[in-house]
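Below is how a single chain appears once it has passed through the pipeline. First comes the sequence as given, then the structure the pipeline wrote out for it. We keep one example in the README because the format questions we get most often are answered faster by looking than by reading.
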Amino acid sequence: MSAKEQFKLYSKADETEPFTAEQLEEKWKAFLPRLDDRPSLKATLSILPTIQEDWSLLLEVDNRIQDELLVNIKPELVSYLRKELRNSKIGLKTVVSDIVREKVIYSDIEKYQEMAKKNPNLALLKRTLNLDF
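Resulting structure:
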């Protein structure tokens, strides 16, 4: 048997059995107990990825640190999913989602400006009383 035939036999490179989101969720959650010793990674993977058209999985993470944590576990996870779901086309892509955070107001001037946006009469009161901030 040639090396190419052995590779096909053992890698199942041509296997592309379709799977559903429910099947993915079941296998994804079955993988999580392996990460009991790494709680931050387990928390990151508690979010299910979405299935793309080419059988690749798209996982949104909150920040770059989570993305870097996934780099180490990604080959094991993808291999597990390919074997369990019988689809060699599965790949895992991560996207860092942009979280828009509100600006935190610290100084008195910033507090005044924010209140003046909500109530324009405050600016009139400031001018009337000759306040200096």
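The helical segments are 3-11, 21-31, 39-44, 64-85, 108-118, 121-129.

See the next section for the split statistics.
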